[in-house]
């Protein structure tokens, strides 16, 4: 018996790149798949590949940033397969520029896909899951939203927003059996074509899908509200932590705070260690 026999998954931005790797992996594990992509030819080609290998899949070419596009994802799943158990919000674009060179259209385009698309796609499917026994939703974040990246203030803002969305929805979904994850994939795709050749070799696209399969299957138990980064031969959890801090005096001043900072009571110490602890498939722990 395959890992996801009887399950139905919806994946946005799945006609090419890492989304396509996801739907291949989901289908291999027995899931029926709704392949969403704004490019019709790419979506239909992915469906043909899955069906040709004995899987079940249908195409959806809606704009996930529009409310009607998000609603159509649920409709496609119900019409073709009668249910939906898994949603992977993977669709994304880049419109990179330093802030003073970034036009409003570049900002709005990224927010339309990454945040409005997150809302539009998730709301109807979350509602269906709420009324029908639960499910798993995986949203896509990025290191650009966690530690930042030059020229990606729009993308970084959106991807950090994804984490806030997921954390809040994990609380809402807990009593309905709806689990939420963030995945931060590191993979060589069209969006990373500008990266060095060494990156393209190391971050092979198929090395992220096993993490996704873990998230959406029974293997991850009842875990929810967590963020995993995956790619290049490692997987690691990202968590935001609060410093122990200190209790100010009754006549608290900025100078007092400066002294507390200097004494190491407020801010985390600067260090050169890696910013994420990772687990390599070889068993070696890094960071």
Description:
This protein is α/β, with parallel strands linked by helices. It folds into 2 domains: 8-238, NAD(P)-binding Rossmann-like Domain (Rossmann fold); 254-286, no CATH class. The protein is built from 9 helices and 10 strands. It has helices at 17-28, 40-52, 67-81, 104-131, 143-146, 153-173, 197-202, 209-216, 254-262, and strands at residues 8-11, 32-36, 57-60, 86-89, 135-140, 178-185, 226-231, 234-238, 278-279, 285-286. It has an 8-stranded mixed sheet, sandwiched between helices. It has a two-stranded antiparallel sheet with strand order 9-10. A hairpin with a 5-residue loop joins strand 9 (278-279) and strand 10. Helix 1 (17-28) crosses helix 8 (209-216) and helix 3 (67-81) packs parallel to helix 4. It is globular and about 70 Å long. The model is unreliable at 273-287 (pLDDT under 50). Pfam families: adh_short. This is NADP-dependent 3-hydroxy acid dehydrogenase YdfG.
């Amino acid at each position: 018996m395959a890992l996801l026999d009887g399950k139905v998954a919806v994946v946005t931005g799945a006609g090419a790149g890492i989304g396509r790797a996801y739907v291949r992996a989901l289908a291999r594990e027995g899931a029926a798949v709704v392949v969403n992509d704004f490019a019709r030819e790419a979506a239909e080609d992915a469906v043909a590949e899955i069906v040709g290998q004995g899987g079940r899949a249908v195409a959806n070419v809606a704009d996930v940033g529009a409310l009607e596009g998000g609603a159509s994802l649920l409709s496609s799943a119900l019409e073709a397969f009668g249910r939906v158990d898994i949603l992977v919000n993977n669709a994304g674009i880049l419109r990179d520029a330093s802030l003073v060179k970034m036009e409003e259209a570049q900002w709005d385009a990224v927010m339309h896909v990454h945040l409005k698309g997150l809302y539009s796609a998730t709301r109807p499917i979350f509602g269906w899951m709420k009324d029908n026994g639960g499910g798993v939703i995986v949203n896509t974040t990025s290191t650009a939203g966690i530690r930042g990246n030059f020229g990606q203030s729009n993308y970084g803002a959106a991807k950090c927003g994804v984490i806030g969305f997921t954390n809040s929805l994990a609380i809402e979904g807990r009593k309905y059996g709806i689990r939420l994850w963030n995945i931060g994939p590191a993979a060589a795709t069209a969006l990373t074509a500008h990266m060095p050749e060494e990156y393209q070799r190391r971050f092979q696209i198929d090395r992220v899908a096993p993490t996704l399969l873990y998230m959406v299957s029974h293997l991850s138990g009842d875990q929810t509200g967590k963020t995993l980064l995956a790619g290049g031969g490692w997987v690691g959890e990202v968590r935001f932590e609060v410093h122990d801090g200190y209790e100010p005096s009754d006549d608290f001043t900025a100078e007092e705070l400066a002294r507390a900072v200097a004494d190491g009571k407020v801010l985390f110490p600067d260090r050169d260690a890696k910013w994420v602890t990772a687990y390599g498939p070889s068993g070696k722990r890094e960071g």
